[in-house]
Amino acid sequence: MSFSFQSDHKLVKLAKKAYSHKVLRYILSGGFSAAVDISAFTLAFNFLFHKHDVILGQMTFNAYSVALVISYTIGSISSFLMNKFFVFSAKTAGLNQLLKSLPIYIMAFAANLVLLKFFIEIFHLWPTVSRVISALLVAFITFNLHKYFTFRK
Fold this sequence. Notes:
The chain has 153 residues and is mainly α. It is built from five helices and two strands; from the N terminus they run ααββααα. The longest helix has 28 residues, at 94-121.
């Protein structure tokens, strides 16, 4: 398949225009971070914990809850870095933004945990499907919180 110079030029212009839209960059980076998170969740839940409860000391936790802690941590690091450098192109100190974003990540984690438990225990959905749904529901809120609080210019 070959393109003429003119169609290549149009493709470059389209790519530049798409890159200039913060929402599109957020969707792309969010999709990447969500894929990292959900992949880590699936691996931890199915292969690390073999779908069995996790016993830590004298406390017992659902495997999906511990898998969420692991996957959400990995996904949040990925998300923060993608948001900082790709979505919002923030030039300010990373530690300041990280400290501003922590409450958002903590609230989003809590919302994800509640939704995950709800979909698994009330609707009897598979944990990975529940994780995908909870991630999608929380994504819109976190975008706006990061846009107007963490990475505002």
